[in-house]
Design brief:
This protein has a 6-stranded mixed sheet with strand order 3-2-4-1-5-6, with helices on both faces. Helix content is about 30%, strand content about 15%. The protein has one domain: 3-Layer(aba) Sandwich (Rossmann fold). Helix 4 packs across helix 5. Helix 2 links the parallel strand 2 and strand 3. The chain is globular. The protein contains 5 helices and 6 strands. By secondary structure, it is of the alpha/beta class.
Length: about 190
Protein backbone atom coordinates (compact mmCIF):
# COMPACT_ATOMS: atom_id res chain seq x y z
CA UNK A 1 0.00 0.00 0.00
CA UNK A 2 1.13 3.50 -0.79
CA UNK A 3 -0.05 6.50 1.26
CA UNK A 4 0.21 9.99 -0.18
CA UNK A 5 0.01 12.37 2.77
CA UNK A 6 -0.88 16.01 2.21
CA UNK A 7 -0.65 18.64 4.90
CA UNK A 8 -3.49 21.16 4.83
CA UNK A 9 -2.91 24.62 3.36
CA UNK A 10 -2.06 27.79 5.31
CA UNK A 11 -4.52 28.89 7.99
CA UNK A 12 -6.51 31.94 8.93
CA UNK A 13 -4.89 32.32 12.35
CA UNK A 14 -2.49 34.85 13.81
CA UNK A 15 1.16 33.86 13.86
CA UNK A 16 2.38 32.48 17.18
CA UNK A 17 -0.92 30.86 18.20
CA UNK A 18 -0.99 27.28 19.48
CA UNK A 19 -3.61 25.25 17.65
CA UNK A 20 -4.14 21.55 17.17
CA UNK A 21 -7.66 20.21 17.56
CA UNK A 22 -9.07 23.72 17.10
CA UNK A 23 -11.12 23.93 13.92
CA UNK A 24 -9.32 26.76 12.10
CA UNK A 25 -10.37 27.84 8.61
CA UNK A 26 -8.03 28.08 5.61
CA UNK A 27 -6.26 31.32 4.68
CA UNK A 28 -7.06 33.54 1.71
CA UNK A 29 -4.15 31.86 -0.15
CA UNK A 30 -6.13 28.59 -0.29
CA UNK A 31 -6.81 28.61 -4.04
CA UNK A 32 -3.19 29.39 -4.94
CA UNK A 33 -1.93 26.60 -2.67
CA UNK A 34 -4.61 24.26 -4.06
CA UNK A 35 -3.42 24.96 -7.63
CA UNK A 36 0.13 24.03 -6.61
CA UNK A 37 -1.06 20.75 -5.11
CA UNK A 38 -3.18 19.93 -8.14
CA UNK A 39 -0.11 20.37 -10.32
CA UNK A 40 1.88 18.00 -8.06
CA UNK A 41 -0.92 15.42 -8.22
CA UNK A 42 -1.54 15.69 -11.98
CA UNK A 43 -2.12 12.25 -13.44
CA UNK A 44 -2.31 10.53 -10.05
CA UNK A 45 -5.25 8.25 -9.26
CA UNK A 46 -6.22 7.15 -5.79
CA UNK A 47 -8.25 4.16 -4.68
CA UNK A 48 -9.48 5.91 -1.53
CA UNK A 49 -9.36 9.36 0.05
CA UNK A 50 -9.25 10.01 3.80
CA UNK A 51 -9.15 13.31 5.67
CA UNK A 52 -9.07 14.70 9.15
CA UNK A 53 -12.58 15.99 9.94
CA UNK A 54 -11.21 19.45 10.77
CA UNK A 55 -12.31 21.95 8.11
CA UNK A 56 -8.78 22.84 7.01
CA UNK A 57 -8.33 19.23 5.84
CA UNK A 58 -11.89 18.50 4.79
CA UNK A 59 -12.05 21.57 2.51
CA UNK A 60 -8.76 20.66 0.87
CA UNK A 61 -9.76 17.02 0.32
CA UNK A 62 -13.01 18.11 -1.31
CA UNK A 63 -11.34 20.76 -3.46
CA UNK A 64 -8.73 18.29 -4.74
CA UNK A 65 -11.59 16.36 -6.32
CA UNK A 66 -9.75 13.04 -6.26
CA UNK A 67 -12.72 10.94 -5.18
CA UNK A 68 -16.49 10.84 -5.11
CA UNK A 69 -16.34 9.81 -1.46
CA UNK A 70 -14.04 11.16 1.24
CA UNK A 71 -13.84 9.28 4.52
CA UNK A 72 -13.32 11.58 7.50
CA UNK A 73 -11.35 9.85 10.24
CA UNK A 74 -10.98 11.26 13.76
CA UNK A 75 -7.65 9.47 14.12
CA UNK A 76 -6.12 11.86 11.57
CA UNK A 77 -6.61 14.98 13.72
CA UNK A 78 -3.69 17.09 14.91
CA UNK A 79 -2.27 16.87 18.44
CA UNK A 80 -4.70 18.00 21.14
CA UNK A 81 -2.93 20.79 23.01
CA UNK A 82 -5.62 20.90 25.73
CA UNK A 83 -5.56 24.14 27.74
CA UNK A 84 -2.98 25.59 25.36
CA UNK A 85 -5.34 25.51 22.36
CA UNK A 86 -5.73 28.97 20.80
CA UNK A 87 -3.31 30.56 23.28
CA UNK A 88 -0.30 32.55 22.14
CA UNK A 89 2.80 30.38 22.52
CA UNK A 90 4.39 33.32 24.37
CA UNK A 91 1.53 33.28 26.93
CA UNK A 92 2.13 29.64 27.87
CA UNK A 93 4.24 29.59 31.06
CA UNK A 94 7.79 28.98 29.88
CA UNK A 95 8.59 26.46 32.63
CA UNK A 96 5.56 24.31 31.63
CA UNK A 97 6.39 24.53 27.94
CA UNK A 98 10.07 23.67 28.49
CA UNK A 99 9.22 20.55 30.52
CA UNK A 100 6.73 19.43 27.85
CA UNK A 101 9.15 20.21 24.99
CA UNK A 102 11.82 17.98 26.55
CA UNK A 103 9.47 14.98 26.58
CA UNK A 104 6.51 15.70 24.28
CA UNK A 105 6.33 12.00 23.40
CA UNK A 106 5.24 11.04 26.92
CA UNK A 107 3.99 14.28 28.48
CA UNK A 108 0.77 16.01 27.53
CA UNK A 109 -0.03 19.70 27.74
CA UNK A 110 -2.61 20.27 30.52
CA UNK A 111 -5.81 18.43 29.47
CA UNK A 112 -4.22 17.52 26.13
CA UNK A 113 -2.59 14.40 24.71
CA UNK A 114 0.92 13.08 24.31
CA UNK A 115 2.64 12.85 20.95
CA UNK A 116 2.87 9.08 21.54
CA UNK A 117 -0.94 8.99 21.73
CA UNK A 118 -1.18 10.94 18.47
CA UNK A 119 1.26 8.51 16.85
CA UNK A 120 -0.75 5.53 18.10
CA UNK A 121 -3.87 7.00 16.46
CA UNK A 122 -1.87 7.26 13.24
CA UNK A 123 -0.55 3.70 13.50
CA UNK A 124 -4.09 2.43 14.08
CA UNK A 125 -5.18 4.30 10.95
CA UNK A 126 -2.33 2.81 8.88
CA UNK A 127 -3.10 -0.72 10.11
CA UNK A 128 -6.75 -0.28 9.17
CA UNK A 129 -5.71 0.96 5.71
CA UNK A 130 -3.33 -1.97 5.25
CA UNK A 131 -6.26 -4.34 5.85
CA UNK A 132 -8.71 -2.43 3.65
CA UNK A 133 -6.42 -1.13 0.91
CA UNK A 134 -3.59 -3.61 0.42
CA UNK A 135 -1.83 -2.96 -2.90
CA UNK A 136 -3.71 0.33 -3.35
CA UNK A 137 -2.82 4.01 -3.41
CA UNK A 138 -4.53 6.06 -0.68
CA UNK A 139 -4.66 9.85 -0.41
CA UNK A 140 -4.65 11.26 3.15
CA UNK A 141 -5.21 14.94 3.94
CA UNK A 142 -4.02 15.58 7.48
CA UNK A 143 -1.79 17.71 9.72
CA UNK A 144 1.93 18.31 10.22
CA UNK A 145 2.09 16.49 13.55
CA UNK A 146 0.39 13.40 12.16
CA UNK A 147 2.64 13.36 9.11
CA UNK A 148 5.73 13.54 11.34
CA UNK A 149 4.36 10.75 13.53
CA UNK A 150 3.73 8.52 10.51
CA UNK A 151 7.22 9.23 9.12
CA UNK A 152 8.67 8.16 12.49
CA UNK A 153 6.56 5.00 12.42
CA UNK A 154 7.59 4.12 8.85
CA UNK A 155 11.28 4.72 9.61
CA UNK A 156 11.12 3.08 13.05
CA UNK A 157 12.40 6.30 14.64
CA UNK A 158 12.01 7.61 18.15
CA UNK A 159 9.70 10.59 18.50
CA UNK A 160 12.38 12.72 20.16
CA UNK A 161 13.73 15.22 17.67
CA UNK A 162 10.95 14.61 15.16
CA UNK A 163 10.21 18.31 14.85
CA UNK A 164 13.47 18.67 12.96
CA UNK A 165 11.42 17.43 9.98
CA UNK A 166 9.91 20.50 8.38
CA UNK A 167 6.49 19.71 6.90
CA UNK A 168 5.27 22.70 4.89
CA UNK A 169 1.66 23.65 4.38
CA UNK A 170 0.31 22.02 1.22
CA UNK A 171 3.27 19.62 1.10
CA UNK A 172 3.22 16.05 -0.15
CA UNK A 173 4.87 13.07 1.57
CA UNK A 174 4.64 9.50 0.34
CA UNK A 175 4.89 6.40 2.51
CA UNK A 176 5.19 3.10 0.70
CA UNK A 177 4.36 0.03 2.80
CA UNK A 178 4.46 -2.44 -0.10
CA UNK A 179 7.91 -3.84 0.66
CA UNK A 180 9.52 -5.39 3.71
CA UNK A 181 10.96 -1.99 4.64
CA UNK A 182 8.66 1.06 4.35
CA UNK A 183 9.93 3.90 2.16
CA UNK A 184 9.47 7.64 2.68
CA UNK A 185 9.51 10.18 -0.16
CA UNK A 186 9.24 13.95 0.21
CA UNK A 187 7.74 15.37 -2.99
CA UNK A 188 8.91 18.86 -3.93
CA UNK A 189 8.16 19.09 -7.63
Amino acid sequence: MKLTLIRHTSLQVAQGICYGHSDIDVAASFHDELAGLQAKLAGERFDAVYASPLQRCSKLAQALGQAQHITHDERLKELHFGDWEMQAWNDIPRELFDVWAQNYADLAPPNGETFAALQQRGIDFVETCLQSHANQHVLVVTHGGMIRALIAHALNMQLKGLFRFHVDYASLTRLDFSGAIPKVEFVNR
